[in-house]
Amino acid sequence: MLTFLSRRLIASILVLFVASYIVYVLAATAGDPLAELRTSTARNKQALIDQRIQELQLNVPAPLRYFLWLGDAIRGNLGTNLQGQSVNTQVANAAGVTIQLLTASLVLAVIIGILIGITSALRQYSGYDYTVTFLAFLAFSLPSFFIAVVLKAYVGIAFNNFLGAPNIPWYLLIIIPLVLGFLWMGIIGGVAKTRWLVFGIATVVSFAVLLYIDLTNWLNYPGLSIVGVGLLSLGAGVLVHLLTAGSGNKKSLYTAVTVAVIGMAVYYPFMLLSDRLNLWTLLLLGVVAIVVGAAVGYFFGGHDRAQSARTGAITAFLTGGFIVIDRYMRAWPVYTQSSYINGRPIGTVGAVTPNLAEATSSFWILSLDSLTHLLLPTISLMLISLAAYSRYSRANLLDVMNQDYIRTARAKGVNERTVVMRHAFRNALIPLTTIVAFDVGGLIGGAIITETVFAWKGMGDLFNQALRQVDVNPMMGFFLVTGAVAIVFNILADLAYSALDPRIRVTV
Question: ∠ CA(308), CA(311), CA(315), 5° rounding?
Answer without folding.
Answer: 140
